[in-house]
Amino acid sequence: MLQSPDSYHDPVLLRECIESLVLGPGLYVDGTLGGGGHSLAILRKLEAEGWLERSLLVGIDQDDEALATARRRLEPFGRSALGVKGNFRDILSLVSGEARRLGMEPAAKGILLDLGVSSRQIDSAGRGFSYMQDGPLDMRMDASAPLSAEDLLRDLDERELASIMFRYGEEPRSRAIARAVVAAREKQGPLQTTKELAEVVRSVVHGRQHLIRSLSRVFQALRIAVNGELDVLRQVLEDGVALLAPGGRMAVISYHSLEDRMVKQFFAKQSECDWGPKGVGLREPLSRGELSLVTRKAVTASEEEVRQNPRARSAKLRVAEKTGGVQ
Question: Which DSSP category does 1 fall into?
């Protein structure tokens, strides 16, 4: 098993990512830089193969703390590594601009997207991502963004809150929980802490296992809504394919069914070939898909990795390659 190089956040499926993504020199993009764990492994692989001097890694993150940590970690690689602040929905403009500035063709050999929240963000009570610690109801990936979870819970009506919890968390008790949120804020004022929200969920959901699942789903739903994660994912998938060079690969790690379903369906749609009307019996398709699937099924973490990092249990990796030849 490839050793994790990151104490900020254990990068999941590290060996599988590197083996499927780093296949030659070129432009690599880590759209979710985090603490730089995956990026560091990519750079080490490029260095070990003698490809580093002909390569550039651009890492993108909207979290200032993560970006500062990653930049320090990647500093030994000098001009071969670049950390850029931004949202990966702007991957096309961010990477194209940096590549051209450095005199490099903006066509990526590999793109990695590690979705979800980092261990550091989850474990930081002040970020408000976890129901296990008391902190402000924030949940913003970018601390300078205007909308927080507290804002949603204060301003949205019962129907809107229930819709968020059901759509983004697939929470079966969404209506009852939303009703309890509205009742709580009418009685005691707006909810302001993760503990207060957890208490509202506890007032509706009983039984330890049911409660843990509902808490996880409600917090996930609010985080997705605050950060617009599914809309952002849809955008980065489309623009990421446009950024890939022919033969370049995109690897996406997701952590819940909504994300994985979106990635799976997108890759499948983009890999479809046009065989014309039924019954024609063509030997070759009229047109081929823009992608070909590298992984037919999602790759999951080994038992060993899950033992070392329990948060890897829900991770699913999917990889696709842009058609048109190998760079």
Answer: -
Q: Identify any residues that bridge with 320 across adjacent strands, giving them in sequence order.
A: 250, 293
In contact, 312 and 16? CB cutoff 8 Å:
no
Among 192, 227, 262, give the residue marking a domain's end: 227
Q: According to DSSP H, which parts of 249-318 are helical?
A: 257-270, 303-308
Listed in order, strand segments (DSSP E) in 41-174 are 56-61, 81-85, 108-114
State the pTM of this model. Answer: 0.89
195, 118 contact by CB (below 8 A): no
Report helix, strand or coil for 8.
coil
What tens digit of pLDDT does each residue of 133-187 get? 999 999 998 888 999 999 999 999 999 999 999 999 999 999 999 999 999 999 9
Among 177, 192, 227, the domain boundary falls at 227
* Amino acid identity, position 162: A
Confidence at residue 3, expressed as pLDDT on a 0 to 100 scale: 44
Helix (H) or strand (E) holding 43: helix 37-48
pLDDT tens string 272-312: 986 667 766 777 766 789 999 999 999 999 999 999 999 89
Query: Do 240 and 221 share a structural domain?
Result: no
If asked whether residues 170 and 238 sit together in one domain, one would say no
Structurally, how many domains does the chain consist of? 2
Residue 156: inside a domain: yes
Residues 162 and 242 in one domain: no
